[in-house]
Design a protein that fits this description.
The structure holds two protein chains of two kinds. Chain A has 22 helices and 31 strands. By secondary structure, chain A is α/β, with parallel strands linked by helices. Residues about 810-815 of chain A have low confidence and may be disordered. In chain B, a hairpin with a 2-residue loop joins strand 2 and strand 3 (about 65-70). The relative contact order of chain B is 0.21. The chains are: A alpha/beta, B alpha+beta.
Chain lengths: ~800, ~280
């Protein structure tokens, strides 16, 4: 998601699921919709049936989506930047990109600082960081400005410092031969895909790239996403129906949870979290407000959020109690870092709320051990999970673990009500179907009772920094009312508590309160909130369905939709018109994602204004082919090997992402060397249709368990022949972190890849199993490394090194 | 003609939502299974598993091919099972489904042997066993609903409707498909016509559909078929009349039949037992 925000301004799926039906060429890369997002296939199939669309699947294994694809292209795990770099080079070198679009709507003509360089695998500005890694000062990545502060441009694209020329130079190294040798695919197959996909770089065609965890779970995951985003900008596939970079989220409400600040560095609505040193006051925080683009409104969003949190206590005079807002220290507090701190005994307690870390975490045996350093652990879940029972896992003596563990039974989605925000940003209300079983309670009630108990304790006994808790504006009723919470998230006017219509109504003077500005509008009508609206679009349309639920922001279904029309406002393709200027006014099928009407006067804003800045969330106003500030690991994506790799990096002198998070110390630090002969195979993990994430729900459902009862290890026929096994034989897979024993699946779905001339086997395994529930098995994450992406710290689950041997035991080994 | 289903194998993605929806609607228990490298699970249909997606993973000319074939009762237009049912329990209903009246069924297994697709299954674990199979959700159809499998299918591979309409739809898809389909509607002629129809994008030997099924109405062969009944039918037929006396024999037959059909690739997990039943 970091890669999307750094290119377009928002870290979201640009289009939505139903829009897939409008695509002409669809690429599923690091995504497996048939298995992990089955409903996507309905709309992909619609595109194929009605438009003759082509489906390309790029994945290390021939998965169930590949079974239905027009073209299947195998790829070595962890080499996506090399592949997409090859596509970018193909488009630039063969002039397959959509020139008018690129000229008008991207920063291709911007001039970059003369000091910008890329040498020996490093961009200019590198300074030594921890663990042999580097940190970048982004000064030389910035754009040149004239004396008036305007960006310097070269509309002829001839200046060697203009973005287009820098990109041509950077990507010229990504030749079909280099792609083939690095990614383990033939040049002919690569060129076939390049030609087909780049055929969408014209006004009347739409190309759609779907990705999921196969792209993000990498030490350069955000740059994988950037590569895809750049490709789509070059081909003019952003902002149009049937196009987009469609990030398929890993769970039904991941979008909603990150919208609501699940990520440690964010407040709700992606407001950056203040840090203790840099932002001691509201004024200091607001000094960091971007100077251009829509984020100039940020102070209104924060003031309204603080007003929502502390109600009458928050006034303009007291900076809306900004001092009560907890501040971050300078440290990383993402998952891996949290567990490393836990292992050091730095954490007292943990809420594992609907999260089964004892199956899902990387290097999971070390993470299970770290849980034993806690004083207390609260698991809130539907079932007794591996996390809730970590103290009685196989091989440990419960008496040795002092952690006090509580398991709070939670209601399932059908047993509670509220909204879920899907990948396409639709916030849909779900009604309760049945009462929860037994003592199970809905999460809102659990949170409400927990808060009230804490508040009462602080009120009675006092404590450090009690005010923010005791004086929190928390009034949702005895059994908390979802509608009251929703009203607060939507925002209301402070004087009368009435909902505001949209975030444009928010103020920084205390007259408005709003829990999450991007959701403003989903609950603007207390009687008939849009989140509950269920009106289908008439057949024959683009499938925007504007009256089916509500999509953030502002009920826009396709974000960045100004570029769907040419600079004069005429749709590039009339059959996909989203917004169109008829000479006097805008005619809109979707909610425009640009200034089209003067809010005060209602006067239409002619197309020239928005044509100049179609990406309103970016200070530059353009789609960022070259991203000057937002990425920690470079303004352009560059191929680096996964941290554990069978080969040296042939594209540059740095082996792996020089900014990636490496756990070089202590018990989380075991990493195989490059080409380690003790671990000769590439290992990758994946998910199956039949199970859900850590399996907490599905391994407790007999009908699902019978479909996929056991953990397994998928290998090629050549590897099976080499070690003398057949399907069903037990094999043991090992890394420096641990080992897994499970039956082998010997299958033509998995093939070795040829990496710089060396045939290298790939081992695949699903990661759904653990030691609790009705269907048990080894967890694949016993094997995965504690290393992560430079920007997001997402662990590198998809590419590491392993060994594989025939297991000594005859029966399945359970642990 | 009554209702039927059109199963378009080019749209099936092997998610097996249909298998689960079938068990849920018909309240069929999960059965103990173990890892199957071909993915098909349970590996065979039984009294408790009326429909399966049968996976096929192979190579053709060096290219990996993976197909998913939904299997269940074909609901013949002229069912052999009905013609051999000595208890008159099996009926081809006007609505389309071939149903078994459990009050009449004596569990003689004639239908299983007569069926050209081997569909009806025996309740090996019951004191008074009945024959079991897909009912095409006759109860749902009566209530104006589509079958559970069709209702749940995310990709729209299973279409429920009037058989005549589905045949028309199938012909249109072949005509418009631009070579996407093989020119054959499986079930249009097989066994004299079945209510369940299939479209395929690959030759049928790359699916798990039964091949070499006669195109004549199978009841015409009933007596020929009856003469070929294997000896075990007599034993089991007697046992069903004698009810409980032969339960141990029944289990042996069950194990032998299912073992023989589970095919290659199923790993053996001796420690597994029946734990998935709890």
């Amino acid at each position: 998601m970091a890669g999307l925000a750094a290119t377009f301004g928002r870290g979201v799926m640009t289009n939505h699921w139903i829009d897939y039906k409008n695509s002409d060429v669809i690429v599923a890369v690091g995504a497996n919709p048939a298995e992990n997002h089955p409903m996507a296939m309905k709309w992909i199939d619609r595109a194929r049936e009605e438009r003759g669309a082509k489906l390309i699947v790029i994945d290390p294994k021939f998965n169930r989506t590949a079974a239905l694809a027009d073209i299947y292209l195998p790829i070595r795990p962890g080499t996506d930047i090399a592949f997409w770099g090859g596509i970018i080079n193909y488009a630039l070198a063969n002039e397959k990109y959509f020139k008018e679009y690129v000229a008008a709507y991207t920063n291709a003509s911007f001039l970059v600082d003369p000091g910008f360089k890329f040498e020996d695998g490093l961009f200019s500005g590198a300074t030594p960081g921890p663990d042999g890694q580097v940190k970048y000062d982004t000064k030389t990545w910035q754009f040149q400005k004239d004396e008036k502060g305007a960006f310097k441009l070269d509309p002829t694209f001839q200046d060697p410092q203009c973005v287009l020329q820098l990109m041509k130079k950077h990507y010229a190294r990504y030749t079909p031969k280099m792609v083939s040798d690095t990614c383990g695919m033939t040049e002919a197959d690569f060129l076939k895909v390049a030609e087909l996909y780049c055929s969408t770089g014209r006004p009347d065609k739409a190309g759609n790239i779907l990705y999921a965890m196969g792209i993000t779970q990498s030490s350069h995951g955000s740059q994988n996403v950037r590569s895809i985003a750049i490709t789509q900008l070059l081909l003019g596939n952003i902002g149009i129906a049937g196009g987009g970079v469609n990030a398929q989220r890993g769970e039904s409400n991941v979008q909603g949870s990150t919208d609501m600040a699940m990520l440690f560095g964010n407040l709700p609505g992606y407001l950056p979290y203040p840090t203790a040193g840099a932002h001691p006051t509201l004024a200091k925080y607001n000094e960091t407000t971007p100077k251009a683009g829509f984020w100039t409104n940020r102070p209104k969003f924060l003031a309204s959020m603080l007003k929502a949190w502390w109600g009458a206590e928050a006034t303009k005079a007291n900076d809306f109690r900004y001092e009560w807002l907890p501040k971050l220290d300078a440290r990383d507090h993402s998952h891996m870092s949290l567990f490393e701190s836990m292992a050091q005994g730095e954490l007292k307690g943990l809420f594992a709320w609907g999260q089964n870390v004892a199956v899902g975490g990387p290097n999971v045996d070390r993470e299970r051990k770290a849980l034993g350093k806690l004083e207390w652990l609260v698991a809130v879940d539907l079932f007794d999970t591996e996390t809730a029972s970590f103290w009685r896992r196989p091989g440990v003596n419960p008496a040795d673990i002092k952690t006090e563990v509580f398991l709070l039974p939670a209601a399932a989605s059908f047993e509670k009500e509220g909204t879920v925000a899907n990948s396409g940003r639709w916030i849909q209300y779900r009604w309760k179907a049945v009462e929860p079983l037994g003592d199970a309670k809905d999460d809102l009630l659990i949170a409400d009772q927990l808060y009230k108990a804490l508040r009462d304790l602080y009120a009675k006994d006092g404590g450090v920094f009690a005010d923010p808790i005791v004086k929190l504006n928390w009034n949702y009723g005895d059994h908390p009312d979802v509608a009251k919470v929703a009203l607060e998230i939507n925002g209301y006017t402070s004087a009368d508590g009435k909902p505001i219509p949209m975030f444009s109504a928010l103020k920084d003077d205390g007259t408005t309160a709003c829990g999450n500005w991007i959701f403003s509008g989903y609950w603007a009508d207390m009687e008939k909130p849009m989140a509950k609206s269920r009106i289908k679009e008439a057949p024959g349309g683009l499938g925007l369905n504007p009256q089916w639920s509500w999509a953030w922001p502002a009920n826009r279904r396709i974000t960045y939709n100004r570029p769907s029309a040419d600079p004069s406002g005429k749709p590039w393709d009339p059959k996909r018109a989203l917004v169109s200027w008829d000479g006097a006014k805008w005619n809109n099928a979707d909610v425009p994602d640009f200034g089209w009407k003067d809010a005060a006067t209602g006067a239409m804003i002619p197309p020239a204004t928005s044509a100049n800045a179609p990406f309103i969330m970016n200070a530059e106003g353009k789609g960022l082919l070259f991203s000057p500030s937002a990425m920690k690991d470079g303004p352009l994506p560059e191929h680096y090997e996964p941290v554990e790799s069978p080969t040296t990096n042939r594209l540059n002198k740095r082996q792996f992402n020089p900014v990636a998070t490496i756990s070089g110390k202590g018990e989380f630090g075991q990493l195989a060397a490059v080409g380690d002969t003790k671990f000769p195979y590439i290992c990758t993990t994946y998910r199956l249709t039949e199970h859900w994430q850590s399996g907490a729900m599905t391994r407790n459902t007999p009908w699902l368990g019978e479909l996929m009862p056991d953990m397994f290890v998928e290998i090629s026929e050549s590897l099976a022949a080499k070690i003398g096994i057949k399907s069903g034989d037990q094999v043991t897979v090992s890394t420096l972190r641990g080992e897994v024993t499970a039956p082998a699946m010997v299958s033509p779905r998995m093939k070795p890849v040829t990496v710089h001339g060396v045939v290298t086997e790939v081992v695949g395994m699903p990661w759904h199993w653990g030691y609790r529930g009705m269907f048990t098995g080894d967890s694949a994450n016993l094997l995965t490394p504690h290393v992560g992406d430079a920007n997001t710290n997402i662990p590198e689950y998809k590419a590491f090194l392993c060994n594989l041997v025939k297991a000594g035991a005859t029966g399945p080994v359970r642990r | 003609m009554g209702k039927g289903m059109l199963i378009d194998l080019t749209k099936c993605m092997g998610c097996r939502g249909c298998q689960v929806a079938c068990k849920q609607w018909n309240n069929l228990q999960a059965v103990p299974t173990e890892f199957n490298a071909e993915f098909t699970n349970p590996p065979v249909r039984s009294a408790y598993t009326w429909t399966t997606i049968d996976f096929l993973i192979t190579e053709v000319d060096g290219k990996t091919v993976s197909t998913f074939t939904k299997q269940q009762c074909m609901h013949c237009e002229h069912p052999a099972c009905e013609s051999v049912c000595i208890a008159a329990a099996i009926k081809k209903t006007k609505a389309g489904p071939v149903t078994i009246d459990y009050d009449k069924c004596i569990g003689c297994r004639y239908c299983q042997v007569a069926c050209p697709f081997g569909v009806p299954k025996y309740q090996f674990d019951k004191a008074t066993p009945k024959m079991q199979k897909c009912t095409m959700c006759a109860d749902r159809i009566e209530a104006g609903m589509e079958t559970a499998c069709a209702a749940t299918c995310p990709s729209g591979a299973i279409k429920f409707g009037e058989r005549a309409d589905l045949l028309k739809m199938a012909r249109e898809r072949i005509a418009k498909g631009n070579g996407k389909y093989i020119d054959h509607i499986y079930g249009e002629e097989e066994a004299g016509g079945t209510a369940v129809l299939y479209l395929s994008g690959v030759p049928l030997d790359l699916t798990k559909l039964k091949q070499g099924v006669t195109e004549e109405e199978v009841p015409n062969f009933t007596w020929k078929a009856m003469r070929q009944l294997p000896a075990l039918l007599g034993v089991v037929g007697l046992s069903s009349l004698g009810l409980m006396a032969y339960s141990s024999r029944r289990n042996a037959v069950a194990a032998a039949e299912e073992g023989a059909r589970s095919g290659a690739g199923a790993g053996k997990h001796p420690s597994k037992g029946g734990k998935h039943h709890d």
